[in-house]
Structures are given as structure tokens and as C-alpha cells.
């Protein structure tokens, strides 16, 4: 590729494993908490009539179904058959991929949070940690919610679409539209997260004037290296 040819990129759940994982675990955590609350309540109610095994079997069946949908190569057709009976249009393309990611994230977090809650209940009933009881386990389970929010915010920040034009020494960002002129950048540094690089910019202040523009952007590592090299060569 010509060194002066523009480099285009897109980083979203379809093109970045990091963004996809963060989105999946973030959304999956909130779904998992909802599922656990419902089934935990049903399980406590079932203890009065001896139906705990039925509730547990229903939860396992739901998780197995969600996992099978997420990993199946024929997921779209299976989902269409189910939703057609409900007169609901089935998702396709990116929407289907997001649904599968959400299902995987939900199953994973149900296992994680559910294991913590079960461990806490066993420890509390057996008095294994004395006065501490189930506190550490319930605390870790509760911590997954703010961590899920952080994961979603990070996934949103790491999403980016743009192009770098070496000849114009300009980075073009889309959604929202922005242009970064590298001639007003005095220094650039890079920190990599998975398959995404975070580029931090230091802007010049000609005559003490503040220069508007993003102070950090998320781009592919190759683009980050090209940008840093261009700033250093200035």
C-alpha cells in the first residue's frame, strides 16, 4: 500500500474482539441479574412446596437453550421459526450477532454471579467464615453491576470509525464528524487495549489560544503507529 494512501478503519463489535467482549459482558451482566432475581425468588417460593428441582431444571434448560442459540450455525433459522409463531420479526445481520453476544454474556454471568450467591449461601448456612458470613461473596456479586456499566462505557468509547490521510496529515473521525490536524499536535503517545490502541494527544497553544479537538482517540494499532511516527517526524 502507498505510504500516502489514506487508511480507513472501523472498530465496533463486528470488527473488534475487545469491543465485542466488553459489550457482551456488560449487557450480559444486566440480563443475568434479571434472570437470577426471578429464578432466585421462584426458588425460595418453591422451597415451601418442594419444587426446587423444577425451578433449577427450568433455569438450566433456559441457559442451555441460550447457549445453544449463541453457538449454533443455524441460529437465525431457529430464531425465525420461534418468532414467526409470535408474529415478531427475527433479527438478522448485526442485530443477530448482538443477540448471540448478549446470550453468551448472559450465560457466562449467570454462572459467575450464581456461583457467588450459592457459595455465599452455603458459607452462611454452614458458618464457615464466622461473623463474616456471605458478605465477601454477595459483595463480589453486587460489584458485577458497576463493572458491567464500566464495560459498556468502555465499549462505547472504544468504538470508532475514521480515516487517516498521511498526505494531508489529518485524521478524519466519523460519528461524530471531526478532523484532527497533526500539525497542531506537539506530542502523541499510545496505550494498547486488546486489539485497539488509545492515542493521547498534546495540542499546541499558539499565542496561548486553546485548540479544540479530542485529546484521545481509539484506533487500530497500525493507525496509531503511523500517527505517532508522523507527529514525531514533525
Describe the structure.
- The model has no long low-confidence stretch (mean pLDDT 84).
- This protein has 234 residues and is of the alpha+beta class.
- The strands form two sheets. Strands 1-2-3-4 form a four-stranded antiparallel β-sheet, with no helix packed on it.
- The chain has helices at 17-46, 52-71, 75-85, 94-126, 135-158, 221-233; strands at residues 7-11, 160-165, 170-174, 178-181, 185-193, 196-203, 216-219.
- Helices cover 56% and strands 18% of the residues.
- The protein folds into two domains: 7-11 and 159-233; 17-158.
- Helix 1 (17-46) packs antiparallel against helix 2, helix 2 runs antiparallel to helix 4 and helix 4 (94-126) runs antiparallel to helix 5.
- The protein is elongated.
- The chain has six helices and seven strands.
What structural class should be given to the helix and strand makeup?
Answer: alpha+beta
Count of discrete structural domains:
2
Straight-line N-to-C gap: 22 Å
Spatial strand arrangement across the major sheet: 1-2-3-4
Q: What is the chain-wise order of helices and strands?
A: EHHHHHEEEEEEH
Determine the number of helices (DSSP H or I, runs of at least 4 residues).
6
| Count of DSSP strands | 7
Global shape: elongated
Beta-strand content: 15-25%
Mean pLDDT: 84
Based on CA atoms alone, the radius of gyration comes out at: 24 Å
Largest sheet properties:
4 strands, antiparallel
Helix content percent band = 55-70%
Oligomer: single chain
Task: Note poorly predicted spans.
Answer: none
Amino acid at each position: 500500500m502507498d505510504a500516502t494512501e489514506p487508511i480507513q478503519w472501523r472498530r465496533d463489535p463486528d470488527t473488534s474482539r475487545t469491543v465485542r467482549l466488553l459489550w457482551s459482558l456488560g449487557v450480559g451482566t444486566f440480563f443475568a441479574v434479571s434472570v437470577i432475581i426471578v429464578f432466585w425468588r421462584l426458588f425460595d417460593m418453591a422451597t415451601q412446596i418442594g419444587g426446587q428441582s423444577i425451578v433449577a431444571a427450568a433455569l438450566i434448560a433456559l441457559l442451555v437453550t441460550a447457549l445453544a442459540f449463541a453457538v449454533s450455525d443455524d441460529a437465525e433459522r431457529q430464531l425465525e421459526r420461534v418468532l414467526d409463531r409470535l408474529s415478531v420479526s427475527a433479527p438478522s445481520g448485526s442485530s443477530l450477532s448482538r443477540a448471540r453476544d448478549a446470550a453468551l454474556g448472559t450465560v457466562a454471568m449467570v454462572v459467575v454471579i450464581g456461583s457467588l450467591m450459592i457459595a455465599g449461601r452455603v458459607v452462611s448456612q454452614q458458618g464457615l467464615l464466622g461473623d463474616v458470613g456471605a458478605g465477601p461473596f454477595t459483595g463480589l456479586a453486587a460489584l458485577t453491576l458497576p463493572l458491567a456499566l464500566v464495560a459498556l462505557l468502555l465499549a462505547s468509547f472504544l468504538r470508532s470509525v475514521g480515516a487517516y490521510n498521511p498526505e494531508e496529515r489529518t485524521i478524519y473521525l466519523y460519528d461524530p464528524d471531526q478532523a484532527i490536524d497533526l500539525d497542531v499536535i506537539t506530542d502523541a503517545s499510545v496505550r494498547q487495549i486488546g486489539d485497539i490502541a488509545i492515542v493521547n494527544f498534546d495540542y499546541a497553544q499558539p499565542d496561548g489560544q486553546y485548540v479544540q479537538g479530542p485529546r484521545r482517540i481509539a484506533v487500530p494499532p497500525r493507525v496509531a503507529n503511523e500517527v505517532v511516527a508522523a507527529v514525531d517526524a514533525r
